[in-house]
């Protein structure tokens, strides 16, 4: 992944200490990160997580209306972004609890600014790998450079919304991508109310990529959660 693409990722910082929030935000901005939002409580952090759809979150454990563990538990119901705990609580029990609940990393305050930026950069590179220009599915290939579906000798163009939806699915190949995440990918920071439109786009995508759209094998519905894209290994 290009360095600039990493720095464009959306980062959410949640901590109840304004001075620390300002310091961490400043450290990250000095490293080139510009897309940063902050929150100081569980309720505020969860609201931002839902509406703004960050791509990485840095959480404190001790918050005024709960703790970072409960925030992570609630967020994991609709988001699988990388999460780093940055907290004064360094007990082994807390580390194990955080990692066991789905956090990707755990740092204890006080911390070295360079270590923080290295860990955040490492998480972003591992979780958002470069997407190949061609992605093979059971019945076709997706050509992201040309925004087309390649089906034998046919080249079928993708609309902008179809392209955005398929990119989000490919970034998470084999994993469930929630309805909220797909709406955010296609319609931006105000994704609410587009569920029916998303279903219509999914239907048209299946008509382009599947052999039998009524019995899809590549773009699968996960009832009540979202969708999953099954890709084929390139031999």
Automatic annotation (TrEMBL):
SMART domains: REC, Trans_reg_C. It comes from the Bacteria. Residues 10-124 form the Response regulatory domain. One of its GO terms (molecular function) is transcription cis-regulatory region binding. Residues 132-231 bind DNA. The modification 4-aspartylphosphate is found at residue 60. One of its GO terms (cellular component) is protein-DNA complex. Gene3D superfamilies: 3.40.50.2300, 6.10.250.690, Winged helix-like DNA-binding domain superfamily/Winged helix DNA-binding domain. CDD domains: REC_OmpR, trans_reg_C. Residues 132-231 form the OmpR/PhoB-type domain. Keywords: DNA-binding, Phosphoprotein, Transcription, Transcription regulation. GO terms for biological process: regulation of DNA-templated transcription. InterPro entries: CheY-like_superfamily, OmpR/PhoB-type_DNA-bd, Sig_transdc_resp-reg_receiver, WalR-like, WH-like_DNA-bd_sf. May play the central regulatory role in sporulation. It may be an element of the effector pathway responsible for the activation of sporulation genes in response to nutritional stress. Spo0A may act in concert with spo0H (a sigma factor) to control the expression of some genes that are critical to the sporulation process. This is Stage 0 sporulation protein A homolog.
